[in-house]
Every structure is written in C-alpha cells, then in structure tokens.
C-alpha cells in the first residue's frame, strides 16, 4: 500500500495528466453547469465493480432489444449532464475517479497542514 505522500503525488500527476489542474494545483477552466460546481472530493470510491442488475430494464424483451434490456435502467437513471455532449458508464467512471483523486489530494493537504 502506498503511503499518503506518494498517493498524493500520484493523484496530482494523474490530475495534471487529465488537465484538471494547472501549475501548482491551479484549476483549469471554469465549471460549465450547476452540476459541475456541485462536484466535491470523494474519500472512497462510490461503487464496487460488479454486475448491477438494477441497470437492466426487465420490461423490455431481450429478444427484441437486447441493449435496452441490459442497459435501459442505467440510461434512465443517468441522464446526460448539461455540460456534456454525451454520457456513458466510462465518462461517469472517469468523473468519479477524478473526484476520488481530488479527495486524496485534499486529505494529503489537510494532513500536511496539521
């Protein structure tokens, strides 16, 4: 397991690679919607990788529309955010990973100041 300073450096490098922070942690760009401004750092991942049967739409016949059967519930519960042109499980995962890395950095900053 990585110790906290190494995790903070890794998170900073990852955020920099994703262009979320500029030099010395300056935020790049501005939030484009109220949803973006409501973003907050996460201290734990909000999911665990597994088959999510609640993402299925069992009202659809899988022989007629298998995509809607298997993903219809997720599409209903995850509308496209106002500041995005498209939205997918991968975009949501990337967004949540960024918030988790932000939480690691916030925790490291708090511990360093104490």
Describe the structure.
The structure is a single chain. With about 110 residues, the protein is mostly helical. It has one domain (about 5-30, about 50-114). The chain is about 50% helix and about 0% strand. Helix 1 packs across helix 4 (about 90-114). It starts with a helix and ends with a helix. Residues about 15-35 have low confidence and may be disordered.
Characterize this entry briefly.
Helix content is 48%, strand content 0%. It is mainly alpha-helical. Residues 15-37 have low confidence and may be disordered.
Question: What is the strand and helix layout of this fold?
Answer:
Blueprint lengths: L3 H14 L16 H4 L28 H12 L11 H25 L1
Number of helices: 4
Sketch the topology as an H/E string, one letter per element. Answer: HHHH
How many whole angstroms does the radius of gyration measure? Answer: 18 Å
Q: How many structural domains in the coordinates? A: 1
Q: Which geometry do the CA atoms define? A: elongated
Runs in which pLDDT lies below 50 for 5 or more consecutive residues are: 15-37
Largest sheet: none
Average residue-wise pLDDT: 74
E-strand count = 0
Beta-strand percentage range: under 5%
The residue fraction in helices comes out at 40-55%
Structural class: mainly alpha
Distance between the termini: 23 Å
């Amino acid at each position: 397991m990585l110790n906290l300073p190494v995790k903070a450096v890794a998170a900073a490098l990852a955020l920099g690679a994703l262009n979320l922070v500029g030099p010395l942690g300056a935020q790049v760009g501005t939030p484009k919607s109220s949803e973006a401004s409501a973003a907050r750092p996460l201290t734990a991942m909000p999911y665990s990788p597994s088959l999510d049967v609640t993402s299925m739409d069992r009202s659809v016949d899988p022989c007629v529309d298998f995509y809607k059967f298997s993903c219809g519930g997720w599409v209903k519960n995850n509308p496209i955010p106002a500041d995005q042109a498209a939205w997918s499980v991968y975009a949501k995962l990337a967004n949540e990973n960024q918030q988790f890395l932000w939480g690691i950095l916030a925790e490291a900053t708090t511990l360093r100041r104490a």
